[in-house]
């Protein structure tokens, strides 16, 4: 198959269990919960996405016709002769394109492979780390994962709804109002709500988007 990649870059993971870890991010184009166009945002299942996942015109983006070609591009972004290789597949929704063959190709090159998914589609069992982040009223088909990261509060996706999901770690991430210009101002009230919920339900932990606070990719 041909892989459509919006962008790829090397940075620090900004949130969740691997926060602060050097990672190559491979952002696939396309999503099944929003088409990425502002005109349809209000009527989509996911209304608060702040990511551009349309097309293949981003940094190091493009179309890759083989697993080896994409794996080579990802490998080229990792520091030469450095170990602890880690790649995060994200989107959009990476499950629309991610294949076992690509994962195996990267694992053969020494990469640990992680995914950040909305959980609505099956994922390859070959993955080393699975993080799901449910959105709105969408049906989640993933019942077991390493990390459950929930944007909070969402009227149709409150933490109690996912009590049956088997997750090693559970995180709440404050909802940012995409219409606001200031990250801290828009999330302040929701951050406090996250703090209060975690204190009352200690199986949940707070995570912040440190990459945005620190202004890094």
UniProtKB/TrEMBL annotation:
Reactions this protein catalyses: 6-carboxy-5,6,7,8-tetrahydropterin + H(+) = 7-carboxy-7-carbaguanine + NH4(+)
Binding site for Mg(2+): 51
Residues involved in S-adenosyl-L-methionine binding: 48-50, 92, 133-135
GO molecular function terms noted in the UniProt entry: 4 iron, 4 sulfur cluster binding; carbon-nitrogen lyase activity; magnesium ion binding; S-adenosyl-L-methionine binding
Keywords carried by this UniProt record: 4Fe-4S, Iron, Iron-sulfur, Lyase, Magnesium, Metal-binding, Queuosine biosynthesis, S-adenosyl-L-methionine
CDD domains from the UniProt entry: Radical_SAM
Binding site for substrate: 12-14, 27, 90
EC number: 4.3.99.3
GO biological process, one term: tRNA queuosine(34) biosynthetic process
Cofactor-binding details, from the entry: Binds 1 S-adenosyl-L-methionine per subunit.
Limits of the Radical SAM core domain: 18-217
SUPFAM superfamilies recorded: Radical SAM enzymes
Residues spanning the membrane: none
Entry's family note: Belongs to the radical SAM superfamily. 7-carboxy-7-deazaguanine synthase family.
UniProt-recorded name of the protein: 7-carboxy-7-deazaguanine synthase
Phylogenetic placement of the source organism: Bacteria, Pseudomonadati, Pseudomonadota, Gammaproteobacteria, Oceanospirillales
Gene name linked to the record: queE
